[in-house]
Structure formats: C-alpha cells, structure tokens
C-alpha cells in the first residue's frame, strides 16, 4: 500500500518514543543515518547558542527550532542535490542540510542582508517572513521546472498557522491544477504564536486539506526523523516522476512541537502549560534516533562524544566568523534594489555618501 | 523602413506580447481568462492559439496565487507576464507585490532577480462597475524595487511593454482602459523598445509646462490646443513611467517655462503630482513664476458611473488649471 493511501489521521511512524522500531525502516546506509543524527545535534546546539546570543544582545530577534529537528533534518535529507527548499523563517536545520553555512543563518538574524544570500549551488530560497507567502513561490518555481522539463523538486516549508492564510490555499490549489513537482511540508508545531492548532481550523487534520485540491495528503510523526525522511522521500520521488496517475504534489503534515518560544520576543508560559511541554519533550527526536542507532550498534559512547565535540566546535567557529564579519558597507543600502540604479536613486546614494563623507559615521550611529 | 500597422492601444499591447513571446521562449502570460478567452479586453487574443496553454495560462481566480506563482517562476529565470484583470483587484495580490515582487533582488543581494511584468487594465472612464476604475499608481511608485509604466499611445504601449518584459527587474504595467480603443497610431510590426524612465514631449510651448501621463494625456493636449488659440503655448510632457520619474525632463521643461501644471486622474492627496511638485521645488525653485497647479481626481472613492464624468479631469478643468498657473 502506498503511503499516500493512508487515512489522513494515521501518521506514519518508524520509531516509537523510545527508539524502538514500529514501522518500515527506510533504506539508508549507516553513514547517512549518522549524518542525520549529526545534523540534528548540530541544529539543536546551534539553536541553544542562538537563543543565548540573543539574550546577550549579540543577535536580534531569533525564531528557535528546538523540537523540530526531526521534521527539518528528516525532510531535507530526502532531497536530491539539485532540488530546492523554499523555507519560512524557522528552517535553520533544514537549510544546513542543504549546505547553507551556519554563518549565513547567524548573519541574517544579526541583521546582515548578506545572510540571505545562499552561495551558488546551495538551492535554498530566501527566508519568507509574511506567513504562507512562500507557498505560491514554491508552486511557481516548481512550475517553471516543469515547463523547462528539468528534474528539480521543490520542498516548501510552513507552519500550522499558515494553513489559515489565503496564500496557502492559492499556492496549493495552483499546484494541484498545474500538477507541479512541489512537496508542501507543514510543520504542525501546535501553536501559531499563542493560538493553538484547534483555533486555526475545524478540520480534524491539516493533511486532509489536500483533499480539497485533489492532491495527496499524509500525516507523519514529525518527532520521528526516519518516518519524516521516508514520507518526504516518497513525496519527492512522486513529484519527480509519478509512476501512476497520482498527482505530483503532496501535502505532508508533520506533527511536532516547538519546545521553546515562537521567537525570542515571545513568552510561551503565558499561553501554554508546563505539563504540555514536558509531555512533548518525552518525544524528543534526538534521543529517539540516538537510541535506535545505539541499538543497531551504529553509534556508541565514543562516537557520540566525538560528534558532540565536533558540533560544538563548528557552531563556535560559525559564531566567531559571523561576529568577525564587518558591518555591511552602507552603500549596500542602494546596491540591490534594482539591477541598474535609477538616476534618482543614484542621486540619493551620492547625497548619502557626501553627507557621510562630510560628517562621518558618528552622524548615523549611536555612541 | 519596417512595415507598420494602424493599431489601438490594446492591440499594441497584444502586439507587444506577441512579439516578445516570439523573441523569447521564456516569456509566458498567466492570469484569469487570458487563454482561450483572450482576456476580457482582448489584450491576449490569439496568443493561446499561437503559443499554447503552457505559455498562455488560464489560472484559477486568485490574485495572490497569480502574482506569487509568477514570483517563483521569475526567480527561476522565466519572464512571466501575469495579468490582473482590473487594477482594482490587485489588492488581494498586494502582499506578494510589495513583500516579494519588489524585494527579492534586495533580499537575496542580487542572487535572485524577478524579470516579471505585472499587467493590469487601469483607470476610469468606461462606465465600469465598482472597483473597476481605480488609479492607484502611487502605491506602486512608492515601493522601492518596482518600476511603474503607464502608456498613453499605441506606439509606447508596445515599446514600453517590450522594455518592461526585457527588464531584469519587476515592472507594474498599467494600461489606461479609457484609451484602449479610443484612437489608432502607426506601430512598427517588428519588435522595439521604448526605454523606461524617459518622458516624451507631446507638444512644445514656452508659457507653461504641463506634466501628465496615461489617459489624461489626451484631454491635456486638447486643453493645450484650445489655449493656443488664445495665444498660450503649453509644453505637454507625457511622463510614460511614474517610477522611475524622468526628473531631468520635468526640471528642464519647468526651467524653460517657469510655470507648471500636473494632471492625473488619481486622487490628489499623496498622488504623483505632489512628487512632481516637490521635484520642481527641490531643483528649480528660482525659476518659479507661479505656484504649481494640480488638476487631479478628488480624494473620494471612485464614483459609480453616473458621476464619473465629474470625477475625472476634463479638458475644461485642465484648461482652467493652466490658466491659473499662467495668470498668477
């Protein structure tokens, strides 16, 4: 039976909360499994450090991802190199799997536009902040791939709150109508800031919204990285070349939880209770995968310690590199608004440069 | 000398789409009713038969979806030309226009650019129902990262559209529907461009500079001809794009005349006339012989058609405005 023939409220699972196998383990070699584990550990450690940097005033507002590593790393691992991911603003873990340097993510949240520029060959769209607005982009970009007859698949991330927005419906509907190679990945982390999933929709599941658009919808345990990988891989393969008359697009609802705040500007204790948080922390994807890998003798204490050290070093190096980055050149303000600077904008740039030349940066900056 | 055709504005738009799609396989048209139906104003008529359903795409009825999907297509290197059926319906797509269409290049530091041209029939004067007559070009001119073109003549309609489609940056292309079929002009059959950001002098005169664009160009010229009979010679400058504005043309015409009138059908407050007046103040104050006069639509919701003749600037109102500037 295809994974897409399941009931919408029957999430795919591979590992239970203790890491015991309860489903079909995907065919991944040991190194790939360790890579997933390493990426999850990296994402978790990065996240903790990023929140701490914000608290110390070394970074601006930051949206934490802890709890969502299983969904992010599992799904991004299922993409081929030429595929694309179209993120919202929380997919720091998925982006690092795709090859976006951690330094870039740090720079973006430290207020450098340069952080939004993925290096050539790293197929990641810029962060999209307005909720669900990236959904039609993913549809359009994958539509372009289809028109040009390339093999690229586009994996689009958004949260449960995004499914209430018009753009979600317009983007997914277009994907259904034009049968685009798009995988819509809903990180249902239960809360859109302070508003629970039950306040977003009366639908029993988010996966079933696929029905309205004639595409496949499937639920997966988002705290189970192997299940997420497995489902996403099947959706990506189907998008690339459906073997049957199934639609190319899929809506995946990954059920998960954000352990922390929506952003560092938010206090979740106002709207949710500790008991709920503890209940979900018991489902933490990292110890779950670790337990499985240990039981298969793929990981041991030594390897785990090695990974831990490497992860800490990598994040520390990225922070050093980001903090060492010079303040962007003020002239950059003007450089990328248009391909060619319109004359009025060139005048504004000259006026700005002349004022800065005459009065120095003290005229712009505090202290 | 290439062959020409005698075309209306809407036919010139269609001809522009047709020749750009022939020139470049990456150009495609999408929107509501643009395919088999050829567009509600027939601006895309015949394209579907020529280029097929993959390049002339009838989409679901969803403005944000149309603009947002075009953003994704353009980011991947296609040159989509989305049509919004009436500019009064651009607002459901407004978030995509200002949050993404305008910002993708800046946000990605130039890695992504959006070579897309969003077309919409625009403006009043055709006895249309509510929400079908708005002129809100100031919204888009205010948004950095966008360019905004508004043709007044068939020749420019084709050439400006071609320039917009070939431009590496996103362009809002507003087509005044009042003049879609009002007159004809000889238009070359072969492709050509009219550069964005360059005004055209429609009439030369030394007494007063009158700045306008789009559908208001015709009543402005009518007023100018009428005043010429009284010995007042107006310089009529058709801006053709409201972003970027041709500051040089504005300043130059003003310096030679010392008097200015700005005519547009959009509401007065926050409209482009204010911007043009400010340019004159900034750059040519010492040439000024009279206050700049604005002849515009009123700051009221666009009326249903029983009253629209009172809303839109007419040749008589424009004439009156010019006289005020001249007789000051």
Distance N to C terminus of chain A? 66 Å
Structural class of chain B: alpha/beta
Instruction: Provide the β-strand percentage band of chain A.
Output: 5-15%
Major β-sheet profile of chain B? 5 strands, mixed
What structural class do you assign from the helix and strand content of chain A?
A: alpha/beta
Strand order of the largest sheet of chain B: 9-11-10-13-14
Tell me what the structure shows.
The complex is a heterodimer of chains A (367) and B (328). Chain A has 367 residues and is α/β, with parallel strands linked by helices. Chain A has 13 helices and seven strands. Chain A has a five-stranded parallel β-sheet, sandwiched between helices. Chain A has a two-stranded antiparallel ribbon with strand order 4-5. The N and C termini of chain A lie far apart (66 Å). In chain B, helix 3 (63-75) runs parallel beside helix 4, helix 8 packs across helix 12 and helix 9 (247-257) crosses helix 10 (272-284). Chain B has twelve helices and 14 strands. Chain B has helices at 9-23, 47-51, 63-75, 94-101, 104-107, 137-141, 154-166, 217-228, 247-257, 272-284, 308-311, 315-327, and strands at 4-7, 27-31, 56-58, 79-83, 117-122, 147-149, 171-176, 185-188, 200-203, 208-212, 234-238, 241-243, 260-267, 293-297. In chain B, the strands form four sheets. In chain B, strands 9-11-10-13-14 form a five-stranded mixed β-sheet, with helices on both faces. A four-stranded mixed β-sheet of chain B has the order 5-7-6-12. Chain B has a three-stranded parallel β-sheet with strand order 3-2-4, sandwiched between helices. Chain B has 328 residues and is an alpha/beta fold. The termini of chain B are far apart. Chain B is globular, with a radius of gyration of 19 Å. In chain B, helix 8 (217-228) links the parallel strand 10 (208-212) and strand 11. Chains A and B meet through helix 5, helix 6 and helix 13 of A and helix 3, helix 4 and helix 5 of B.
């Amino acid at each position: 039976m295809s994974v897409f023939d399941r009931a919408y409220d029957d999430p795919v699972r591979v590992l239970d909360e203790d890491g015991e196998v309860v489903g079909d383990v995907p065919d991944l070699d040991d190194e790939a499994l360790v890579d997933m584990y390493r990426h999850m550990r990296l994402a978790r450690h990065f996240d903790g450090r990023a929140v701490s940097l914000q608290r110390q005033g070394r970074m601006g507002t930051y949206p934490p991802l802890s709890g969502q590593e299983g969904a992010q790393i599992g799904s991004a691992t299922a993409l081929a190199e030429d595929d694309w991911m179209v993120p919202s603003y929380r997919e720091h873990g998925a982006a690092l799997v795709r090859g976006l340097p951690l330094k870039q993510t740090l720079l973006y949240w430290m207020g450098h536009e340069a952080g939004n520029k993925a290096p050539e060959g790293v197929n990641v769209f810029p962060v999209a902040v307005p909720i669900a607005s990236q959904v039609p982009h993913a549809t359009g970009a994958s539509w372009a791939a289809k028109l040009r007859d390339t093999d690229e698949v586009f994996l689009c991330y958004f949260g449960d709150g995004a499914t209430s927005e018009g753009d979600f419906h317009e983007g997914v509907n277009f994907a259904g109508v034009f049968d685009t190679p798009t995988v819509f990945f809903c990180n249902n982390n239960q809360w859109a800031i302070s508003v629970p999933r039950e306040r977003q929709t009366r639908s029993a599941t988010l996966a079933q919204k696929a029905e309205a658009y004639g595409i496949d919808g499937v639920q997966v345990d988002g705290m189970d990285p192997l299940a997420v990988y497995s489902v996403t891989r099947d959706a990506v393969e189907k998008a690339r070349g459906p073997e049957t008359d199934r639609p190319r697009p899929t809506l995946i609802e990954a059920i998960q939880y954000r352990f922390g705040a929506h952003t560092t500007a938010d206090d979740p204790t106002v709207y949710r209770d500790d008991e709920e948080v503890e209940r979900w922390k018991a489902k933490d994807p990292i110890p779950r995968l670790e337990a499985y890998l240990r039981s298969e003798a793929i990981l041991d204490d030594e390897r785990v310690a090695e990974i831990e050290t490497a992860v800490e070093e990598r994040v520390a190096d990225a922070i050093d590199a980001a903090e060492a980055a010079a303040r962007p050149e003020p002239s950059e303000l003007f450089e990328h608004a248009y391909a060619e600077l319109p004359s009025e904008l060139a005048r504004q740039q000259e006026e700005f440069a002349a004022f800065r030349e005459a009065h120095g940066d003290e005229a712009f900056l505090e202290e | 000398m290439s062959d020409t055709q005698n075309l209306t504005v809407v036919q010139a738009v269609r001809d522009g789409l047709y020749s750009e799609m022939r020139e470049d396989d990456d150009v495609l048209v999408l929107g509501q009713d643009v395919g088999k139906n050829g567009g509600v104003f027939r601006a895309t008529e015949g394209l579907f038969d020529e280029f097929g359903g993959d390049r002339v795409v009838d989409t679901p009825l969803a403005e944000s979806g149309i603009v947002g999907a075009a953003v994704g297509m353009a980011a991947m290197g296609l040159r989509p030309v989305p049509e919004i059926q009436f500019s009064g319906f651009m607002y459901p797509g407004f978030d995509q226009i200002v949050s993404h269409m305008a910002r993708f290049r800046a946000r990605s530091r130039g890695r992504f650019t959006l070579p897309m041209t969003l077309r919409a029939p625009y403006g009043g004067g055709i006895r249309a129902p509510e929400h079908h007559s708005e002129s809100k070009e100031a919204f888009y001119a205010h948004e950095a990262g966008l360019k905004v073109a508004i043709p007044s003549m068939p020749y420019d309609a084709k050439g400006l559209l071609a320039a917009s489609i070939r431009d590496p940056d996103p362009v809002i292309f507003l087509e005044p529907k009042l003049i879609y079929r009002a007159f004809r002009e000889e238009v070359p059959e072969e492709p050509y461009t009219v550069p964005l950001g360059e005004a055209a002098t429609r009439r030369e005169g030394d007494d007063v500079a009158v700045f306008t664009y789009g559908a208001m160009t015709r009543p402005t010229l009518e007023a100018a001809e009428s005043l010429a009979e009284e010995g007042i010679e107006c310089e009529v400058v058709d801006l053709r794009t409201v972003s970027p504005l041709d500051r040089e043309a504005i300043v130059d015409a003003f310096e030679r005349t010392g008097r200015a009138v700005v005519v547009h059908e959009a509401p007065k407050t926050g409209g482009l006339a204010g911007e043009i007046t400010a340019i004159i103040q900034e750059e040519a104050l010492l040439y000024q012989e009279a206050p700049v006069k604005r002849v515009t639509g009123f700051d009221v919701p666009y009326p249903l058609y029983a009253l629209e003749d009172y809303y839109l600037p007419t040749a008589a109102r424009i004439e009156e405005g010019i006289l005020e500037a001249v007789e000051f």
